[in-house]
């Protein structure tokens, strides 16, 4: 019976395919393929492009064929058929007919596609324009099967001995390039995926267009590009409404002005005003004092309750105060860099926000009520409007995740969505019913119009949001243009640049949305300005970046950040190690930034942290020194340009100066290989410096490796709280019953699995009062990796199930945990790591290497210690360099989870967690009369170092004590038995205190590379 059904289904499928082919063939039977090739050439005939009758492509340069005969030429590509772009379906356009002086009709013998294009041979470039696309032989238009397809052109050229290159340039925002706007390949390759937004009668967008040109060297590239900028009115032009002309002279004058203004080294204050207008001027004066020439503000500080309004809290008189502050800064040589969320606006926006719910908001779908709706009703049925977007089909939900990319169609993207009934907004859940209606469960009512009843047939909209706090405009709406204009006008008042953080939210209908926004903003700016985005590349609208002479302005790479912040619950105050480490990262760039923890520094930060003046001296020193450093010297400090693991992740290069020289000395805190992590990257926050954790109980750290000559080190100890397992004030976090375990839905997966690794959910077991944590990776040749960042991909349990009613545990006074783990025989795995974590998107995570057998108890002093573990993979964001996670400073936990976070390929494990408890913190005792032992030498310190203070000893008869914010407190006497020396090679270190053995410490034993000091003779700094 099954065989018969299969054959019947196969027969029907073949009939459908044959019918489709017949329709396509009969439709195109009237098309007559050209008998002769069509050639396009510029007047000098330096380049000729020939399209053969079968649509194959030949490119000649000075009469010689330079194109590869295997070039794909024209095709239609369906890229939404798989998560990997290589798994899509390509249909060749293998027929060509000339239908006008420069127009071609292309069609396929194997599919229902025809494409009309125009190719114009300009003096020094070709212009390719899409005129029309059809995938419907009966109507000659687009049907619902089109979204997800795109027109592609690809011609490959052989490398030229004289360095000749073929480049492709976007002429408007409806085209795409496979490798970004600035990548020059040996050939031309472009995509046209958005015809369904161009060929509509309702708010149509421009058809796609690109320019293709050949060049040798930067000078010719920029010369041709100037011609294109002047000759193609679709391209972005600055201050468009006020330009009376746009000649080559106009374009070059603007470009030269832009280059001259952007070419000055920028020394940036990333500042936080904290809602106090006085701080504007205090920070300005501090910036001027230290030679800082730019102030950076976050959008939530400078921008008000609309994209076109300044923040009234710090600019009470609006634009008048903006201009006043701008002129005050200008008189001190300071301009502005303003963080911006261009393209999206806050839900609280007075003009476009949730209390207005304008018609111009982006929507993922639309439908109508099936039945009347009454206020308070929790469930509704909606009839989908399948004509709202071209690709809508029965069975589709109103919002869903994209297939593999945010330009999936209809506009499915990893954003949030709100349901809109009569301008009243709700959080919702949706299911598709068997008869293809949308069954909607209404959840929280969001701030918006008061709920009101509605009638059957009333419109229901599904509003796309970046988050529930950020709204996204529809790029086809008039409101979209107004958002861009308002944003640009406010930037004009500041004379500041445009920024597009949150750009991933701004692509509801495809990446053309953000490109269009950048063009509209740019054309309303009256001043030269740089730009940036969360994607890390300049935006389409800011056309200067396409010029090689402009690209050289920023050729050094991204500026580094000198982080500066006070002590907090989960972060140590900035030290001079942090300052120099941040400055090391910007040796390739002329620009430098001082910043805080995910925000700007404040006046209070500067007043609190004791190394401010010293840090600013280093900041100025690095800025003056960099222009005289060789590439070889820069590569020693930051090897990122060589695509190897950055040198600055293991060492800090500390700068000092004499009257005649700058001196750079390589230093490091010695580590235990395979146990301690180097400096660890931290996105938008200070990098985490290496350190070890130990108790003052005399137990030694062994295997501390010093790669440099034997020397007297600097010993730096941070005094933490006293804590230990078994304390009567500790709180058990161990589940007591199997039924409190909540396991993930099987089939879910972690979207953040990195290249070269696999990921999947993990269920917890519970046997005889023990948690069973296991994973089988034995059949995979990839490493297993899971960081359970708020997605509940691992088995977990709530604190409420342990406490009998209290929903959250406040761990702020018990940040450490003790965990007892049993690894049965045969389950030990070198490279296997067990994690116990709190809740949240940035959890406090405690990790244990499972490379042993038997039962052990591990005391872990806080949730940040994992960042110093070499075996914890964390978040693999940078090639070969895991990043740290200290993004949230809270220790209020609602649930807990346990999972295998890392497991090598071909391995499996099953371990038992016997006990988990918090460790209550004693912050009153401090470290009393410690004895420091390094190898065979001892240094006895007399006195008490309070909780959260630092002890620094570098030899001699005294040690220094610093406050939590690195303010000097006092000297303490030291009695030494021998000189503390860090030997070249392996070292042993311990701290013992008979009166405070329970105190936890973090240690940094710092050594210098005295054999390879960098010295630079001073010259006059211009």
State the gist of this model.
The chain has 1022 residues and is α+β, with helices and mostly antiparallel strands. Helix content is 16%, strand content 31%.
Describe how the helices and strands are arranged.
Layout: H1 2-28, E1 38-41, E2 47-51, E3 57-61, E4 64-65, E5 73-78, E6 89-92, E7 95-98, E8 103-107, E9 114-121, E10 126-134, E11 149-156, E12 165-170, E13 187-192, H2 195-198, E14 209-215, H3 217-231, H4 248-262, E15 267-271, H5 277-289, E16 294-297, H6 299-302, H7 319-330, E17 335-338, E18 345-346, E19 363-369, E20 379-384, E21 416-421, E22 424-432, E23 438-445, E24 459-467, E25 470-471, H8 478-494, E26 498-500, H9 512-522, E27 531-533, H10 548-551, E28 560-563, H11 576-584, E29 592-595, H12 603-608, H13 612-625, H14 631-637, E30 652-657, E31 661-669, E32 692-695, E33 701-706, E34 714-722, E35 757-758, E36 764-767, E37 770-777, E38 783-785, E39 796-798, H15 800-803, E40 809-810, E41 816-823, E42 833-837, E43 845-849, E44 854-860, E45 875-878, E46 881-883, E47 892-893, E48 895-903, E49 907-919, E50 927-928, E51 931-934, E52 937-941, E53 944-945, E54 950-953, E55 958-962, E56 968-977, E57 985-992, E58 999-1008, E59 1014-1017
Parallel strand pairs: 15-16, 15-29, 16-17, 26-27, 28-29, 35-38
Antiparallel strand pairs: 1-2, 2-3, 3-4, 5-6, 5-11, 7-8, 8-9, 9-10, 10-14, 11-13, 12-14, 18-25, 19-20, 19-24, 20-23, 21-22, 21-24, 22-23, 24-25, 30-31, 31-58, 31-59, 32-58, 33-57, 34-54, 34-58, 36-37, 37-49, 38-48, 39-48, 40-47, 41-44, 41-49, 42-43, 42-48, 45-46, 50-53, 51-52, 51-57, 52-56, ...
């Amino acid at each position: 019976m099954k065989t018969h059904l299969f054959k019947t289904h196969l027969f029907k499928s073949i009939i459908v395919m044959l019918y489709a082919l017949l329709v396509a063939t009969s439709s195109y039977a009237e098309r007559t393929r050209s008998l002769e090739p069509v050639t396009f050439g510029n007047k000098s005939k330096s380049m000729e492009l020939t399209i053969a009758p079968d649509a194959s492509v030949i490119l000649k340069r000075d009469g010689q064929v330079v194109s590869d005969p295997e070039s794909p030429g024209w095709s239609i590509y369906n890229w939404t058929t798989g998560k990997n772009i290589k798994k899509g379906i390509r249909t060749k356009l293998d027929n060509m007919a000339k239908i006008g002086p420069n127009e071609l009709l292309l069609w396929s013998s194997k599919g229902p596609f025809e494409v009309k294009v125009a190719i114009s041979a300009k003096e020094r470039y070709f212009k390719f324009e899409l005129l029309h696309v059809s995938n419907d032989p009966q109507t000659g238009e687009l049907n619902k099967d089109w979204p997800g397809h795109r027109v592609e052109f690809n011609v490959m050229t052989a490398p030229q001995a004289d360095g000749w290159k073929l480049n492709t340039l976007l002429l408007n925002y409806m085209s795409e390039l496979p490798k970004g706007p600035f990548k020059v390949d040996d050939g031309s390759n472009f995509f046209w995926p958005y015809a369904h937004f161009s060929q509509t009668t309702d708010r149509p967008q421009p058809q796609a267009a690109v320019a293709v040109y050949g060049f040798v060297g930067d000078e010719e590239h920029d010369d041709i590009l100037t011609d294109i900028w002047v000759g193609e009115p679709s391209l972005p032009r600055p201050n468009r409404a006020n330009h009376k002309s746009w000649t080559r002279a106009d374009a070059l004058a603007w470009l030269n002005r832009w280059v001259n203004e952007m070419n000055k080294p920028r020394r940036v204050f990333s500042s936080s005003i904290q809602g106090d207008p006085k701080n504007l001027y205090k920070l300005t004066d501090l910036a001027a004092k230290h030679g800082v020439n730019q102030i950076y503000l976050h959008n939530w500080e400078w921008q008000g309750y609309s994209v076109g309004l300044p923040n009234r809290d710090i600019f009470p008189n609006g634009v008048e105060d903006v201009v006043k502050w701008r002129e005050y800064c200008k008189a001190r040589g300071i301009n502005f860099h303003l963080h911006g969320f261009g393209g999206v606006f806050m839900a609280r926006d007075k003009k476009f926000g949730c209390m207005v719910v304008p018609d111009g908001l982006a929507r993922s779908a639309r439908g109508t009520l099936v039945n009347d709706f009454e206020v308070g009703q929790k469930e509704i049925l909606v009839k989908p409007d399948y004509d709202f977007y071209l690709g809508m089909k029965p069975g589709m939900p109103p919002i869903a995740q994209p297939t593999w990319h945010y330009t999936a169609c209809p506009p499915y993207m990893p954003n949030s969505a709100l349901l809109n009934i009569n301008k009243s907004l709700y959080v919702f859940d949706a299911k598709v019913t068997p008869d293809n209606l949308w069954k909607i469960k209404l959840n929280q009512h969001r701030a918006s119009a008061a709920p009101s009843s509605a009638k059957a047939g009333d419109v229901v909209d599904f509003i796309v949001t970046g988050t529930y706090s950020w709204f996204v405009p529809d790029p086809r709406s008039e409101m979209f243009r107004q958002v861009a204009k308002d944003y640009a006008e406010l930037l004009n008042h500041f004379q500041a640049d445009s920024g597009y953080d949150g750009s991933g939210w701004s692509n509801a209908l495809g990446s053309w949305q953000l490109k269009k926004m950048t063009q509209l903003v740019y054309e309303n700016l009256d001043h030269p300005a740089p730009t940036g985005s969360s994607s890390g590349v300049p935006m389409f609208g800011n056309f200067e970046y396409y010029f090689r002479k402009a690209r050289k302005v920023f050729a050094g790479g991204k500026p580094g950040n000198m982080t500066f912040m006070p002590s907090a619950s989960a972060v140590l105050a900035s030290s001079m190690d942090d300052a120099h480490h941040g400055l090391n990262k910007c040796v390739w760039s002329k620009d430098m930034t001082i910043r805080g923890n995910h925000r700007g520094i404040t006046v209070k930060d500067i007043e609190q942290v004791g190394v401010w003046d010293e840090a600013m001296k280093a900041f100025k020193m690095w800025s003056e020194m960099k222009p005289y450093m060789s590439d070889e010297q820069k590569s020693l400090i930051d090897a990122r340009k060589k695509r190897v693991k950055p040198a600055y992740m293991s060492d800090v290069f500390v700068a000092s100066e004499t009257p005649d020289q700058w001196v750079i000395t390589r230093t490091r805190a010695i580590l235990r290989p395979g146990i301690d992590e180097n400096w660890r990257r931290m996105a938008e926050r200070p990098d985490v410096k290496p350190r070890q954790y130990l108790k003052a109980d005399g137990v030694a750290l062994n295997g501390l490796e010093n790669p440099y000559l034997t020397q007297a080190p600097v010993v730096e100890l941070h005094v933490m709280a006293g804590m230990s397992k078994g304390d009567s004030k500790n709180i058990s976090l161990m589940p007591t019953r199997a039924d409190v375990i909540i396991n993930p839905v099987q089939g879910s997966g972690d979207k953040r699995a990195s290249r070269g690794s696999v990921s999947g959910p993990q269920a917890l077991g519970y046997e005889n009062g023990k948690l069973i944590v296991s994973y089988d990776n034995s059949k995979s040749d990839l490493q297993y990796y899971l960081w359970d960042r708020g997605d509940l991909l691992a088995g977990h349990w709530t604190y409420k199930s342990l406490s009998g009613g209290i929903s959250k545990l406040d761990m702020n006074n018990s940040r450490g945990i003790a965990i007892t783990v049993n690894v049965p025989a045969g389950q030990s795995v070198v490279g296997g790591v067990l994690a116990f974590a709190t809740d949240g998107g940035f959890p406090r995570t405690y990790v244990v290497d499972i490379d042993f057998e038997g039962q052990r108890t591990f005391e872990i002093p806080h949730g940040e210690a994992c960042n110093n573990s070499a075996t914890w993979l964390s978040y693999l964001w940078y090639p070969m360099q895991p990043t740290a996670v200290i993004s949230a400073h809270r220790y209020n936990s609602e649930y807990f989870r346990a999972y295998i976070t890392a497991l090598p390929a071909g391995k499996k494990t099953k371990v038992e967690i016997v006990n988990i408890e918090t460790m209550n913190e004693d912050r009153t005792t401090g470290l009393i009369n410690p004895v420091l032992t390094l190898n065979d030498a001892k240094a006895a310190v007399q006195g008490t170092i309070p909780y959260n203070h630092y002890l620094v000893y570098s030899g001699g008869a005294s040690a220094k004590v610093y406050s939590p914010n690195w303010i000097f407190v006092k000297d303490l006497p030291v009695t030494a038995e021998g000189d503390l020396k860090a030997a070249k090679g392996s070292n042993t270190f311990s701290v013992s205190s008979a009166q405070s053995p329970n105190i936890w410490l973090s240690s940094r034993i710092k050594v210098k590379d005295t054999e390879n000091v960098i010295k630079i003779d001073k010259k006059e700094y211009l």
